[in-house]
């Protein structure tokens, strides 16, 4: 009886502590998510007060929408930046973890873009990539490319330019996490390998890289999810153009919702986005068990 | 010319000879280390070139913007672009005040509410705790795009659309913060609470007087990360604000750029204004940020 009372008191206290936050999560996450799920089956348009239930029409429309496939393709191209950034970050981290001077300064230089950059830096890149006179093409011309790419101004190269910005942005974050992981590798192990005559490159490839595989896997998953959710920098500098060539799924949701006020359809696309994240998360659950050695 | 050769000749022999004799391996290692440092320094500076170019351009004349080779330090520093950004009808002073208001209130609230909830999740046993935490974690999977439309409709209905409350109220709640603080509270030894219980303290006293003071570094980390999110938050402001007078810095910046499409110097002065606070936060809080990011990622 006494124990029961204690348990009840503990539960009350627990809810008291979590309560305020839970209320917010309910109001700003759970309820909107359920509401959005409902909207998926309606033809709700913000300008039109009449709402009717349309069943699976939105989903059918999605699968027939060419722009959906284009934005899906652009999203995949955008996501390619994630492994590239991770690979580069690994190389940087290995060097910074080893024998270099000025470690702190170097770490700060590589890490700075991640912390300081919002939309502001996107506008800087917009000018750097300026095709006729921008400094990047100025440099390319100076080293002998008479016909440098149009970057953000042509449909073929616009996603590439966005990828470069994103690789630059994510590099520091990935590097910091690799540096933490590299600290965990025992120096005796590396010393032993060196004694056995292993070359620097061999040690990195066959000892360090496999040992940090859990980190690589984690960075891949979190990086993919984070990238899928982003659209700010693209909206800021290209608004999805030229000719929808940088319209990624998350931006496609935004455009349908707040340019065309087609709320039902926008909700539908946003759940496609969720499905993509769900697939990646499921790969994580599955992969954590078999792929990663702790 | 002559003096330098003499100086070199007189300096070289004594500095080289003793170094070579004791250990060539040490010299070799030092050389390798210097070379590696130089290479990394080159790439590291390349990483911050966009920032350097931005600041440099903000002080140039329009004619100098796209000059190649790049003139890093302009012939004479032009302050007029910065003055244009900070004065007039759409002054950045205004955007700064809006951003500070939204970011500070959100960050303070979110940091406290996260710690409060995280204590409940980490240090009180109660029915349904784990199920609740799973719901929290699953909400992290829901992309913000799913929530934009319903939040827009709900805020419009509640009359807070196009007010700062539309940014502040949701900003008070961060699932990442709860997750991060919970990780920290789990690492605090439980014996601390036990001895306090014996002395007759309850959970509230333990939280405020024992655990919270211990959590200062973690709280600082969360506050810095959260502040930088709110300061840089362009997407929510874009969706929930329409009046210029309410604009936060990212929207103000966009507004400036739309109104001055050919004034590249002005654009870069505006971008500088947007980034400077983050550079200060970065310089002051780098240690905390690095710690926080590596902790949540490696243990999580």
Can you describe what's shown?
- The complex is a heterodimer of chains A (294) and B (300).
- With 294 residues, chain A is an all-alpha fold.
- Chain A has a domain at 81-243: MetI-like fold (Orthogonal Bundle).
- In chain A, 74% of the residues lie in helices and 0% in strands.
- Chain A has helices spanning 2-39, 57-64, 66-79, 81-97, 103-116, 119-128, 135-142, 158-183, 187-195, 200-211, 213-229, 232-237, 249-258, 263-290.
- Chain A starts with a helix and ends with a helix.
- The termini of chain B are far apart.
- Chains A and B meet through helix 1, helix 4, helix 5, helix 6 and helix 7 of A and helix 2, helix 4, helix 5, helix 6 and helix 11 of B.
Summarize the structure.
Chain A has 294 residues and is an all-alpha fold.
Q: Radius of gyration of chain B in whole Å, from Cα?
A: 27 Å
Question: Which two chains form the greatest contact, residue counts included?
Answer: A-B, 98 and 95 residues
CATH homologous superfamily classification of the domain at 81-243 in chain A: MetI-like
- What is the number of domains of chain B? 2
- The CATH architecture of the domain at 81-243 in chain A comes to Orthogonal Bundle
Cα end-to-end separation of chain A = 45 Å
Along the chain, the helix and strand elements of chain B come as HHHHHHHHHHHHHH
CATH class of the domain at 81-243 in chain A: Mainly Alpha
Helix content of chain B: over 70%
**Largest β sheet strand count, sense and barrel closure of chain B:** none
Q: C-alpha Rg of chain A, in Å?
A: 24 Å
Quick one: CATH superfamily of the largest domain in chain B? MetI-like
Q: Overall mean pLDDT score of chain B?
A: 86
CATH architecture of the largest domain in chain B: Orthogonal Bundle
Q: Which fold name fills CATH's third level, the topology of the domain at 81-243 in chain A? A: MetI-like fold
């Amino acid at each position: 009886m006494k124990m029961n009372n204690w348990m009840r008191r503990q539960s009350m206290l627990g809810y008291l502590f979590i309560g305020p936050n839970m209320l917010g999560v309910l109001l700003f996450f759970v309820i909107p998510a359920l509401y959005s799920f409902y909207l998926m089956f309606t033809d709700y348009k913000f300008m039109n007060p009449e709402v009717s239930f349309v069943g699976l029409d939105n989903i059918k429309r999605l699968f027939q929408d060419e722009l959906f496939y284009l934005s899906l393709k652009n999203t995949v191209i955008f996501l390619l930046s994630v492994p590239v950034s991770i690979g580069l970050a690994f190389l940087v981290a290995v060097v910074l973890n080893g024998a270099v001077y000025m470690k702190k300064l170097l770490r700060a230089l590589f890490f700075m873009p991640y912390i300081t950059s919002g939309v502001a830096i996107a506008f800087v890149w917009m000018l750097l990539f300026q095709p006729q006179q921008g400094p990047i093409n100025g440099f390319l011309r100076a080293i002998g490319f008479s016909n440098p790419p149009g970057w953000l101004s042509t449909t073929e190269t616009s996603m590439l330019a966005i990828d470069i910005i994103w690789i630059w942005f994510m590099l520091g974050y990935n590097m910091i996490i690799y540096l933490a992981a590299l600290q965990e590798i025992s120096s005796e192990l590396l010393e032993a390998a060196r004694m056995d005559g292993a070359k620097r490159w061999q040690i990195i490839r066959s000892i360090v890289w496999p040992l940090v595989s859990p980190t690589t896997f984690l960075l891949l998953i979190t990086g993919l999810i984070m990238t899928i959710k982003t659209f700010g920098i693209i909206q800021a500098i290209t608004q999805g153009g030229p000719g929808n060539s940088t319209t990624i799924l998350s931006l496609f949701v935004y455009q349908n919702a707040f340019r065309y006020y087609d709320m039902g359809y926008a909700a539908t696309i946003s759940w496609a986005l969720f499905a993509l994240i769900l697939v990646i998360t499921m790969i994580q659950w599955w992969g954590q068990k078999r792929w990663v050695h702790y | 010319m002559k003096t330098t050769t003499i100086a070199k000749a007189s300096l070289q022999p004594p500095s080289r000879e003793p170094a070579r004799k004791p250990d060539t391996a040490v010299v070799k290692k030092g050389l390798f280390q210097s070379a590696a440092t130089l290479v990394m320094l080159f790439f590291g500076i390349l990483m911050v070139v966009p920032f350097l170019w931005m600041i440099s351009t903000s002080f140039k004349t329009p004619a100098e913007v796209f000059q190649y080779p790049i003139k890093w330090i302009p012939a004479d520093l032009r302050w007029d672009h910065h003055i244009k950004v900070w004065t007039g009808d759409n002054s950045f002073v205004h955007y700064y005040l809006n951003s500070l208001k939204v970011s500070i209130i959100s960050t303070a609230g979110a940091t406290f509410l996260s710690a409060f909830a995280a204590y409940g999740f980490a240090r009180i046993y109660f029915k349904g705790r784990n199920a609740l935490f799973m719901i929290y974690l699953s909400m992290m999977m829901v992309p913000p795009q799913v929530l934009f439309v319903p939040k827009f409709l709900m805020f419009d209905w509640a009359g807070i659309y196009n007010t700062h409350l539309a940014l502040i109220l949701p900003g008070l709640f961060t699932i990442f913060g709860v997750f991060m603080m919970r990780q920290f509270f789990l690492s605090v030894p439980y014996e601390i609470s036990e001895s306090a219980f014996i002395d007759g303290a309850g959970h509230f006293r333990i939280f405020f007087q024992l655990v919270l003071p211990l959590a200062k570094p973690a709280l600082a980390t969360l506050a810095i990360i959260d502040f930088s999110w709110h300061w840089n938050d362009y997407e929510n402001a874009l969706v929930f604000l329409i009046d210029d007078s309410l604009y936060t810095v990212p929207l103000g910046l966009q507004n400036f750029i739309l109104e001055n499409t050919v004034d590249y110097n002005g654009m870069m002065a505006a971008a500088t204004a947007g980034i400077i606070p983050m550079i200060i936060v970065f310089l002051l809080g780098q240690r905390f940020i690095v710690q926080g990011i590596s902790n949540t990622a490696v243990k999580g």
